Amino acid sequence: SSKILYTLSNDKRNSSFNPTEGYEFGIGQTLSALVSDVPSIESSFFGSYYQEIAPKFNSSIKYRVRAINSLTDKDILINDRLHLTDSYLRGFKSRGVGPIDGDDHVGGNYSVNSSAATTIPSFIPETWNIATGVFMDAANVWGIDYDKDGLDDSNSIRMSVGLGINWISPLGPLSVSYATPIMKESTDDVREFSFNLGTVF
To answer: Is 13 helix (H, G, I), strand (E, B) or coil?
Structure first.
């Protein structure tokens, strides 16, 4: 397959690295048409908002909506279907939620995810460049363009709450989080601890 993509955004955050105030929103599309087994178009809409609500309490809200659709009568390939990683839905394994074919999570044609978080004061010295906080994630992956016995669309909201630590290391931002699912399905794969490059909040 071959892909052409673009992203348009309006970024008013005070920092793209570790923002504490401002907002960002944007759209993006990926077109797979030429030299592609299954021509398709993927569209996304995303945004975030940051605000200091009190000293050492920096809050944030993030969201993202995606959809992928075939441009022909062929089904979207499994490698192109949408999944959620544990960066967007903490408390669950990457690619561990959504439509099920047999015992496998096969991704969906639509996904939505959002998170709300705030930093909180801690006993860790500020010179260590470490921030602690609490968060809540909510997400869903659904819709699949083929039908067969044993296929479960699994269309329901998943939600988790947790604690996280951000460390601005010499190699860039690193994060460790612990999250507990409060809304899930029996077919979901849970992972409470996660380690990621990037920030939690």
So the answer is: coil
Residue 174 is predicted with a pLDDT of 86
The answer to whether 164 touches 131, Cβ cutoff 8 Å, is: no
Q: Say what the pTM is.
A: 0.91
> Are 176 and 150 a contacting pair, CB within 8 Å?
no
What is the 3-class SS of 72-98, one letter each residue? Answer: CCCCCCCCCCECCCCCCCCEECCCCCC
Give the pair of three-digit tokens for residue 23. Answer: 């907002």
pLDDT tens readout for residues 4-37: 999 999 999 998 877 899 999 999 999 998 888 8
- Report pLDDT digits (tens) over 63-104: 999 999 999 999 998 889 999 999 899 999 999 999 999 889
Tokens linked to 78: 């499994």
Distances (CA, A) of 31 to 69, 71, 129: 10, 10, 40
The order of strands in the sheet holding 22-32 is 4-11, 22-32, 40-54, 57-70, 110-120, 130-142, 158-169, 172-183, 193-197
Question: What one-letter code names the amino acid at 128?
Answer: W
